[in-house]
Design brief:
The protein is an alpha/beta fold. The chain contains 5 helices and 9 strands; from the N terminus they run H-E-H-E-E-E-H-E-E-H-E-H-E-E.
Length: 167
């Protein structure tokens, strides 16, 4: 699709590290987009139940076209569930890995993170994408959640994806 390489380090390394350390069986991705995250998560976790959530049915791409949410993962026949809506409609419990890459505003990140915390099991891993100066609301929301709950934020210097293990 001509989708540009959008950030330093992308998120493959962080998703791989979280998948290898946790071996999650229940994964939720917030912000399906074109489905790159879902595809990577399926490759890394072939037996896991994966649910992706997006509030958009159609996603604009770098090539100027508009595609259905999850298009890339669907084209690769990636097995996952898709939910149109928001995390507030999430019915799953005991999620072991959350990948938050949806609404990058402070309010969006804060809401997604708080709901994800309620739906996670102890020891789950939470990752946030686009933790960078281009998304100050995302950074503020992540920082406040980690401070509020005492989570140690893991950040690699060449990445815009951060993570923590939930207590």
């Amino acid at each position: 699709l001509g989708e540009p390489y959008r950030d330093e380090g992308f998120y493959t390394r962080e998703l791989a590290a979280a998948s290898m350390s946790k071996k999650p069986q229940r994964i939720v991705e917030i912000g399906t987009g074109l489905g790159i995250g879902a595809l990577l998560l399926r490759i890394l976790n072939p037996e896991a139940d994966i649910l992706t959530i997006d509030n958009r049915e159609l996603i604009p791409a770098a090539d100027g076209n508009v595609y259905p949410a999850g298009y890339i993962s669907d084209q690769n026949k990636t097995r996952h569930n898709f939910m149109l809506g928001t995390i507030e409609n999430l019915f799953w419990q005991n999620v072991q890995l959350f990948f938050i890459d949806g609404d990058h505003s402070y309010e969006g990140v804060s809401l997604d993170s708080e709901v994800a915390l309620r739906k996670s099991e102890k020891g789950a891993i939470m990752l946030w994408h686009d933790y960078n100066d281009r998304h100050p609301g995302c950074m503020r929301g992540v920082d406040e959640i980690c401070k509020k709950y005492g989570f140690a934020l893991h950040l690699l210097p060449d990445s815009s994806t951060v993570s923590c293990v939930l207590k």
